[in-house]
Amino acid sequence: MAVTRCSRHIDFGHIVKSKRYILHFAGILVMLFFSSCSEFLPNPALPTLIPTAYLPTAIAQTAQALVAASASATLPAAALAVTPTRTISAMATLQAPSSTPTPQQPGASTRTPLPELPLEIPFAEIQFVSPGALSRVVSPIELHAFLVPSDSGRARVELYGEDGRLMFRKLFILNSSPGFQANLRSEIDFEITAVAETATLVISVDDTYGRLKTLASQPLILLSLGESDLNPPDDFLAPIVIQQPETKVLIQGGTLVVSGLVRKASDQPLLVELITTDGKVIGSRLAGVATQPEGGHRLFAAEIPYQVGTPTWVRVTVSESGGRMERPLRLSSVEVLLSP
After folding, report:
1. Statement: the pTM of the whole predicted model exceeds 0.85
2. How many CA atoms lie within 13 A of 72 on its CB side?
């Protein structure tokens, strides 16, 4: 039996050529690997990235440094110093004249501009609840009001006829803490010979030296017969608001600027007076009032020269008069210390 041998022909040249292709392909893979990995290796020429969570802090610190550098480059060191602000306590209005006043620079009052209209007008210290303005009333008048009495709790109620005669006056002692409103209720008796007569109902408060501190009035129509016909009250906003000077401040320089807001009930000018503790008027002027807006609060201002030899406490009163009354229809005041 014949045995057949299978012989295999091996092409070594083809094998060598294949190995070369394999090595060449492997080299390309190695180059691609290192070139792609170089993207993830740190590059000393590029800045270090900041984590996202710290970006707002870094931006704020950078901006602050730029602003400080710019300010120090353009302004002297003295201009960069922080000037402390002074807070005036709201309780200053309740302090006695012996308290230390807040100083005001000499001559500063003559350069102070007119104030701007505030967003809110404060409430009046005297508020008529009933009867309202121009109510038709018979005797007795049922008076209801809220007011801030004097330190001793005193308040005065008066009724004047159309000819200026005094028809009623009564002094009330009210229980109220200093600076807080009290509730006033009373009956006011009157007699008239005519069928009807116009009148003015006045509530006023004096300070401890007997000077008028605040005053408000209400026009009424008195009836001898019939029934009362009451009008509702107006708003309770202050008719005269003194914005300058503030209470308990020290004024120097020989001139006091008084300015503020007023809602006038007549065409009479405003009277500004400086009254000492013994009742002497050491300065007075008529205040100019702006023409706009009509019907609302308007700006007023006046410059009052004064002469004092020593520091003197005075009450600055701003009042409005009208009709035949010798007393004002409305009055507001603050207390200040005048110095030469």
Report:
1. no
2. 6
